[in-house]
Amino acid sequence: MKIAMMARNPSLYSHQRLKEAAEARGHTLDIINTLRCYMNIASRRPEMYYNGEKLEGYDAVIPRIGASVTFYGLAVLRQFEMMGVYPLNESVAIGRSRDKLRSMQLLARDGIGLPVTTFAHDPKQTEEVLALAGGAPLVIKLLEGTQGLGVVLADTDRSAKSVIEAFRATNTNILIQEFIKEAGGTDIRALVVGGKVVAAMKRTGAEGEFRSNLHRGGSAQVIKLTPEERSTAIRSAKAMGLEVCGVDMLRANHGAVVMEVNSSPGLEGVEKATGIDIAGKIIEHLEKVAKPGATKTKGKG
Protein backbone atom coordinates (compact mmCIF):
# COMPACT_ATOMS: atom_id res chain seq x y z
CA MET A 1 0.00 0.00 0.00
CA LYS A 2 0.92 3.60 -0.47
CA ILE A 3 0.05 5.42 2.76
CA ALA A 4 -0.04 9.13 3.59
CA MET A 5 0.34 10.23 7.21
CA MET A 6 -0.88 13.70 8.11
CA ALA A 7 1.56 14.94 10.77
CA ARG A 8 3.33 18.23 11.40
CA ASN A 9 6.33 16.77 13.27
CA PRO A 10 7.81 13.74 11.48
CA SER A 11 10.40 13.16 14.23
CA LEU A 12 7.88 12.34 16.97
CA TYR A 13 8.20 8.80 18.38
CA SER A 14 4.66 7.81 17.33
CA HIS A 15 5.16 8.99 13.75
CA GLN A 16 8.54 7.32 13.36
CA ARG A 17 7.17 4.05 14.76
CA LEU A 18 4.21 4.05 12.37
CA LYS A 19 6.55 4.73 9.44
CA GLU A 20 8.92 1.93 10.53
CA ALA A 21 6.03 -0.50 11.01
CA ALA A 22 4.55 0.28 7.59
CA GLU A 23 7.88 -0.08 5.79
CA ALA A 24 8.68 -3.30 7.67
CA ARG A 25 5.47 -4.77 6.21
CA GLY A 26 6.39 -3.72 2.66
CA HIS A 27 4.38 -0.50 2.37
CA THR A 28 5.49 3.05 1.59
CA LEU A 29 4.49 5.79 4.01
CA ASP A 30 4.90 9.51 3.28
CA ILE A 31 4.69 11.95 6.19
CA ILE A 32 2.84 15.03 4.96
CA ASN A 33 2.75 18.32 6.86
CA THR A 34 -0.98 18.95 7.29
CA LEU A 35 -0.71 22.73 7.07
CA ARG A 36 1.23 22.63 3.77
CA CYS A 37 -1.55 20.80 1.96
CA TYR A 38 -3.88 22.83 -0.22
CA MET A 39 -6.99 21.78 -2.07
CA ASN A 40 -8.88 22.34 -5.27
CA ILE A 41 -12.57 22.08 -4.33
CA ALA A 42 -13.62 21.16 -7.88
CA SER A 43 -16.99 19.63 -8.68
CA ARG A 44 -16.57 15.83 -8.98
CA ARG A 45 -12.77 16.26 -9.28
CA PRO A 46 -11.41 16.81 -5.75
CA GLU A 47 -7.66 17.41 -5.81
CA MET A 48 -4.95 17.83 -3.19
CA TYR A 49 -1.57 19.50 -3.56
CA TYR A 50 1.53 19.46 -1.39
CA ASN A 51 4.67 21.55 -1.91
CA GLY A 52 3.58 22.27 -5.48
CA GLU A 53 2.88 18.65 -6.42
CA LYS A 54 -0.44 16.88 -6.83
CA LEU A 55 -1.08 14.16 -4.26
CA GLU A 56 -2.47 11.03 -5.86
CA GLY A 57 -2.21 7.26 -5.80
CA TYR A 58 -2.62 6.83 -2.05
CA ASP A 59 -4.50 3.81 -0.72
CA ALA A 60 -4.87 5.01 2.87
CA VAL A 61 -4.29 8.03 5.09
CA ILE A 62 -3.34 8.02 8.77
CA PRO A 63 -4.51 11.31 10.33
CA ARG A 64 -2.33 12.51 13.21
CA ILE A 65 -3.98 15.92 13.56
CA GLY A 66 -2.73 18.15 16.38
CA ALA A 67 -5.44 19.72 18.55
CA SER A 68 -4.32 23.24 17.58
CA VAL A 69 -4.95 22.58 13.85
CA THR A 70 -8.14 20.52 14.14
CA PHE A 71 -10.22 22.73 11.82
CA TYR A 72 -7.75 22.74 8.92
CA GLY A 73 -6.68 19.15 9.55
CA LEU A 74 -10.26 17.89 9.25
CA ALA A 75 -10.70 19.85 6.01
CA VAL A 76 -7.61 18.15 4.55
CA LEU A 77 -8.80 14.72 5.74
CA ARG A 78 -12.27 15.28 4.22
CA GLN A 79 -10.58 16.05 0.90
CA PHE A 80 -8.65 12.77 1.08
CA GLU A 81 -11.95 10.97 1.83
CA MET A 82 -13.65 12.58 -1.18
CA MET A 83 -10.70 11.43 -3.31
CA GLY A 84 -11.50 7.84 -2.23
CA VAL A 85 -8.47 7.44 0.05
CA TYR A 86 -9.26 5.20 3.05
CA PRO A 87 -8.83 7.00 6.41
CA LEU A 88 -7.64 5.11 9.50
CA ASN A 89 -9.98 7.37 11.48
CA GLU A 90 -12.72 9.25 9.66
CA SER A 91 -13.04 13.03 9.79
CA VAL A 92 -16.51 12.90 11.36
CA ALA A 93 -15.31 10.57 14.14
CA ILE A 94 -12.27 12.74 14.92
CA GLY A 95 -14.50 15.83 15.00
CA ARG A 96 -16.78 14.12 17.54
CA SER A 97 -13.88 13.17 19.81
CA ARG A 98 -12.28 16.63 19.66
CA ASP A 99 -15.46 18.29 20.90
CA LYS A 100 -15.39 17.36 24.60
CA LEU A 101 -19.03 18.27 25.14
CA ARG A 102 -20.25 16.37 22.05
CA SER A 103 -18.19 13.32 22.99
CA MET A 104 -19.60 13.31 26.54
CA GLN A 105 -23.14 13.55 25.16
CA LEU A 106 -22.53 10.61 22.80
CA LEU A 107 -20.99 8.47 25.54
CA ALA A 108 -23.88 9.30 27.89
CA ARG A 109 -26.39 8.41 25.17
CA ASP A 110 -24.82 4.95 24.91
CA GLY A 111 -24.93 4.39 28.66
CA ILE A 112 -21.16 4.53 29.18
CA GLY A 113 -19.96 5.42 32.69
CA LEU A 114 -18.97 9.09 33.11
CA PRO A 115 -18.13 11.39 36.00
CA VAL A 116 -21.01 13.75 36.82
CA THR A 117 -20.58 16.46 34.16
CA THR A 118 -22.31 19.83 33.87
CA PHE A 119 -22.25 22.60 31.29
CA ALA A 120 -23.87 26.03 31.15
CA HIS A 121 -23.41 29.36 29.42
CA ASP A 122 -25.03 31.91 31.73
CA PRO A 123 -22.67 32.95 34.60
CA LYS A 124 -25.76 33.59 36.76
CA GLN A 125 -26.23 29.80 36.88
CA THR A 126 -22.79 29.08 38.37
CA GLU A 127 -24.05 28.10 41.81
CA GLU A 128 -26.74 25.81 40.39
CA VAL A 129 -24.16 24.15 38.11
CA LEU A 130 -21.77 23.60 41.06
CA ALA A 131 -24.60 22.00 43.04
CA LEU A 132 -25.53 19.75 40.09
CA ALA A 133 -21.93 18.51 39.92
CA GLY A 134 -22.05 17.65 43.62
CA GLY A 135 -19.98 20.54 44.98
CA ALA A 136 -16.22 20.84 45.53
CA PRO A 137 -13.75 19.38 44.94
CA LEU A 138 -14.45 19.78 41.22
CA VAL A 139 -12.49 19.55 37.99
CA ILE A 140 -12.99 22.47 35.59
CA LYS A 141 -11.95 21.91 31.96
CA LEU A 142 -11.63 24.06 28.88
CA LEU A 143 -13.45 22.37 26.00
CA GLU A 144 -10.44 22.94 23.76
CA GLY A 145 -7.76 21.77 26.24
CA THR A 146 -5.34 18.90 25.54
CA GLN A 147 -2.51 17.01 27.31
CA GLY A 148 -3.77 18.22 30.68
CA LEU A 149 -3.67 21.91 29.74
CA GLY A 150 -6.76 23.95 30.61
CA VAL A 151 -7.70 21.61 33.48
CA VAL A 152 -8.07 23.01 37.02
CA LEU A 153 -8.86 21.27 40.31
CA ALA A 154 -10.95 23.49 42.60
CA ASP A 155 -10.86 22.35 46.25
CA THR A 156 -13.69 24.58 47.51
CA ASP A 157 -16.93 25.95 46.10
CA ARG A 158 -15.52 29.46 46.45
CA SER A 159 -12.40 28.66 44.42
CA ALA A 160 -14.53 26.80 41.85
CA LYS A 161 -16.73 29.84 41.45
CA SER A 162 -13.67 32.09 41.01
CA VAL A 163 -12.12 29.83 38.36
CA ILE A 164 -15.43 29.55 36.46
CA GLU A 165 -15.89 33.33 36.50
CA ALA A 166 -12.30 33.85 35.30
CA PHE A 167 -12.78 31.43 32.40
CA ARG A 168 -16.16 32.95 31.53
CA ALA A 169 -14.57 36.43 31.39
CA THR A 170 -12.44 35.19 28.48
CA ASN A 171 -15.57 33.91 26.70
CA THR A 172 -14.39 30.28 26.70
CA ASN A 173 -16.57 27.20 27.05
CA ILE A 174 -15.95 24.96 30.06
CA LEU A 175 -17.09 21.65 31.50
CA ILE A 176 -17.45 21.10 35.26
CA GLN A 177 -16.97 17.53 36.50
CA GLU A 178 -16.96 15.73 39.80
CA PHE A 179 -13.49 14.91 41.15
CA ILE A 180 -12.96 11.15 41.44
CA LYS A 181 -10.91 11.23 44.64
CA GLU A 182 -10.66 7.44 44.95
CA ALA A 183 -8.67 7.30 41.67
CA GLY A 184 -5.74 8.69 43.68
CA GLY A 185 -4.12 10.65 40.85
CA THR A 186 -4.02 7.62 38.54
CA ASP A 187 -5.91 6.82 35.37
CA ILE A 188 -6.03 4.05 32.79
CA ARG A 189 -5.40 4.40 29.08
CA ALA A 190 -6.68 1.58 26.91
CA LEU A 191 -5.55 1.45 23.27
CA VAL A 192 -8.33 0.27 20.98
CA VAL A 193 -7.52 -0.88 17.43
CA GLY A 194 -10.29 -2.23 15.20
CA GLY A 195 -12.75 -2.79 18.03
CA LYS A 196 -10.28 -4.63 20.30
CA VAL A 197 -8.20 -3.46 23.27
CA VAL A 198 -4.61 -4.22 22.23
CA ALA A 199 -2.82 -2.69 25.25
CA ALA A 200 -3.50 -0.87 28.49
CA MET A 201 -1.43 1.07 30.98
CA LYS A 202 -1.95 2.79 34.31
CA ARG A 203 -0.66 6.37 34.44
CA THR A 204 0.25 7.94 37.77
CA GLY A 205 0.64 11.70 38.18
CA ALA A 206 3.84 13.31 39.44
CA GLU A 207 4.07 14.11 43.17
CA GLY A 208 1.37 16.65 44.09
CA GLU A 209 -0.16 16.54 40.57
CA PHE A 210 -3.76 15.37 40.10
CA ARG A 211 -3.32 15.09 36.32
CA SER A 212 -1.66 11.84 35.22
CA ASN A 213 -0.56 12.91 31.72
CA LEU A 214 2.90 11.59 30.82
CA HIS A 215 3.63 14.99 29.25
CA ARG A 216 3.30 16.46 32.76
CA GLY A 217 5.82 14.16 34.42
CA GLY A 218 3.54 11.18 35.06
CA SER A 219 4.74 7.58 34.96
CA ALA A 220 3.24 4.51 33.28
CA GLN A 221 3.06 0.79 33.99
CA VAL A 222 1.29 -2.17 32.43
CA ILE A 223 -2.12 -3.02 33.90
CA LYS A 224 -4.68 -5.81 33.53
CA LEU A 225 -8.12 -4.44 32.72
CA THR A 226 -11.28 -5.78 34.31
CA PRO A 227 -13.92 -7.12 31.88
CA GLU A 228 -15.99 -3.97 32.62
CA GLU A 229 -13.08 -1.66 31.77
CA ARG A 230 -12.34 -3.54 28.55
CA SER A 231 -15.99 -3.36 27.52
CA THR A 232 -16.15 0.35 28.40
CA ALA A 233 -13.11 1.12 26.21
CA ILE A 234 -14.49 -0.81 23.22
CA ARG A 235 -17.96 0.76 23.54
CA SER A 236 -16.43 4.25 23.83
CA ALA A 237 -14.46 3.79 20.60
CA LYS A 238 -17.62 2.56 18.87
CA ALA A 239 -19.66 5.51 20.19
CA MET A 240 -17.13 7.90 18.59
CA GLY A 241 -16.81 5.83 15.41
CA LEU A 242 -13.02 5.58 15.83
CA GLU A 243 -10.98 2.64 14.51
CA VAL A 244 -7.92 3.61 16.57
CA CYS A 245 -8.04 5.59 19.81
CA GLY A 246 -6.89 5.88 23.38
CA VAL A 247 -9.68 5.70 25.97
CA ASP A 248 -8.82 7.38 29.28
CA MET A 249 -10.70 6.00 32.29
CA LEU A 250 -10.73 6.38 36.05
CA ARG A 251 -11.54 3.69 38.59
CA ALA A 252 -14.43 5.17 40.58
CA ASN A 253 -16.23 3.48 43.47
CA HIS A 254 -19.15 2.77 41.15
CA GLY A 255 -17.00 1.38 38.30
CA ALA A 256 -15.03 2.66 35.32
CA VAL A 257 -15.76 6.23 34.17
CA VAL A 258 -14.47 7.67 30.89
CA MET A 259 -12.65 11.00 30.95
CA GLU A 260 -11.70 11.33 27.28
CA VAL A 261 -11.39 9.48 23.98
CA ASN A 262 -8.23 10.49 22.11
CA SER A 263 -8.23 10.03 18.32
CA SER A 264 -4.43 10.50 17.96
CA PRO A 265 -3.01 8.65 20.98
CA GLY A 266 0.72 8.79 21.61
CA LEU A 267 2.43 5.42 21.28
CA GLU A 268 5.65 5.95 23.23
CA GLY A 269 4.28 5.59 26.77
CA VAL A 270 2.11 2.56 26.09
CA GLU A 271 4.67 0.72 23.91
CA LYS A 272 7.43 1.20 26.48
CA ALA A 273 5.19 0.29 29.43
CA THR A 274 3.73 -2.84 27.83
CA GLY A 275 6.36 -3.94 25.31
CA ILE A 276 3.59 -4.36 22.73
CA ASP A 277 4.14 -3.34 19.08
CA ILE A 278 1.12 -1.03 18.83
CA ALA A 279 2.34 0.60 15.60
CA GLY A 280 2.53 -2.83 13.95
CA LYS A 281 -1.00 -3.67 15.07
CA ILE A 282 -2.30 -0.38 13.61
CA ILE A 283 -0.68 -1.06 10.21
CA GLU A 284 -1.91 -4.67 10.30
CA HIS A 285 -5.46 -3.42 10.91
CA LEU A 286 -5.13 -0.92 8.04
CA GLU A 287 -4.11 -3.77 5.72
CA LYS A 288 -7.35 -5.61 6.55
CA VAL A 289 -9.78 -2.73 6.13
CA ALA A 290 -8.32 -0.23 3.63
CA LYS A 291 -10.25 -0.35 0.37
CA PRO A 292 -10.70 2.42 -2.24
CA GLY A 293 -13.82 4.50 -1.56
CA ALA A 294 -14.74 2.46 1.53
CA THR A 295 -15.08 5.54 3.72
CA LYS A 296 -18.53 5.47 5.32
CA THR A 297 -19.08 9.20 5.10
CA LYS A 298 -17.30 9.99 1.80
CA GLY A 299 -16.22 13.31 3.36
CA LYS A 300 -19.78 14.21 4.39
CA GLY A 301 -20.92 15.34 7.82
UniProtKB/TrEMBL annotation:
<keyword id="KW-0436">Ligase</keyword>
<dbReference type="Pfam" id="PF08443">
    <property type="entry name" value="RimK"/>
</dbReference>
<keyword id="KW-0460">Magnesium</keyword>
<feature type="binding site">
    <location>
        <begin position="211"/>
        <end position="213"/>
    </location>
    <ligand>
        <name>ATP</name>
    </ligand>
</feature>
<dbReference type="Pfam" id="PF18030">
    <property type="entry name" value="Rimk_N"/>
</dbReference>
<keyword id="KW-0547">Nucleotide-binding</keyword>
<dbReference type="GO" id="GO:0005737">
    <property type="term" value="C:cytoplasm"/>
</dbReference>
<dbReference type="InterPro" id="IPR013815">
    <property type="entry name" value="ATP_grasp_subdomain_1"/>
</dbReference>
<dbReference type="InterPro" id="IPR041107">
    <property type="entry name" value="Rimk_N"/>
</dbReference>
<comment type="similarity">
    <text>Belongs to the RimK family.</text>
</comment>
<feature type="binding site">
    <location>
        <position position="260"/>
    </location>
    <ligand>
        <name>Mn(2+) 2</name>
    </ligand>
</feature>
<feature type="binding site">
    <location>
        <position position="260"/>
    </location>
    <ligand>
        <name>Mg(2+) 1</name>
    </ligand>
</feature>
<dbReference type="GO" id="GO:0018169">
    <property type="term" value="F:ribosomal S6-glutamic acid ligase activity"/>
</dbReference>
<feature type="binding site">
    <location>
        <position position="260"/>
    </location>
    <ligand>
        <name>Mg(2+) 2</name>
    </ligand>
</feature>
<dbReference type="InterPro" id="IPR023533">
    <property type="entry name" value="RimK"/>
</dbReference>
<feature type="binding site">
    <location>
        <position position="141"/>
    </location>
    <ligand>
        <name>ATP</name>
    </ligand>
</feature>
<feature type="binding site">
    <location>
        <position position="248"/>
    </location>
    <ligand>
        <name>Mg(2+) 1</name>
    </ligand>
</feature>
<feature type="binding site">
    <location>
        <begin position="178"/>
        <end position="179"/>
    </location>
    <ligand>
        <name>ATP</name>
    </ligand>
</feature>
<feature type="binding site">
    <location>
        <position position="262"/>
    </location>
    <ligand>
        <name>Mg(2+) 2</name>
    </ligand>
</feature>
<dbReference type="GO" id="GO:0005524">
    <property type="term" value="F:ATP binding"/>
</dbReference>
<dbReference type="InterPro" id="IPR004666">
    <property type="entry name" value="Rp_bS6_RimK/Lys_biosynth_LsyX"/>
</dbReference>
<keyword id="KW-0479">Metal-binding</keyword>
<dbReference type="GO" id="GO:0009432">
    <property type="term" value="P:SOS response"/>
</dbReference>
<dbReference type="GO" id="GO:0006412">
    <property type="term" value="P:translation"/>
</dbReference>
<feature type="domain" description="ATP-grasp">
    <location>
        <begin position="104"/>
        <end position="287"/>
    </location>
</feature>
<feature type="binding site">
    <location>
        <position position="262"/>
    </location>
    <ligand>
        <name>Mn(2+) 2</name>
    </ligand>
</feature>
<dbReference type="InterPro" id="IPR013651">
    <property type="entry name" value="ATP-grasp_RimK-type"/>
</dbReference>
<dbReference type="GO" id="GO:0046872">
    <property type="term" value="F:metal ion binding"/>
</dbReference>
<feature type="binding site">
    <location>
        <position position="187"/>
    </location>
    <ligand>
        <name>ATP</name>
    </ligand>
</feature>
<keyword id="KW-0067">ATP-binding</keyword>
<keyword id="KW-0648">Protein biosynthesis</keyword>
<dbReference type="InterPro" id="IPR011761">
    <property type="entry name" value="ATP-grasp"/>
</dbReference>
<protein>
    <recommendedName>
        <fullName>Probable alpha-L-glutamate ligase</fullName>
        <ecNumber>6.3.2.-</ecNumber>
    </recommendedName>
</protein>
<feature type="binding site">
    <location>
        <position position="248"/>
    </location>
    <ligand>
        <name>Mn(2+) 1</name>
    </ligand>
</feature>
<comment type="similarity">
    <text>In the C-terminal section; belongs to the RimK family.</text>
</comment>
<keyword id="KW-0464">Manganese</keyword>
<feature type="binding site">
    <location>
        <position position="260"/>
    </location>
    <ligand>
        <name>Mn(2+) 1</name>
    </ligand>
</feature>
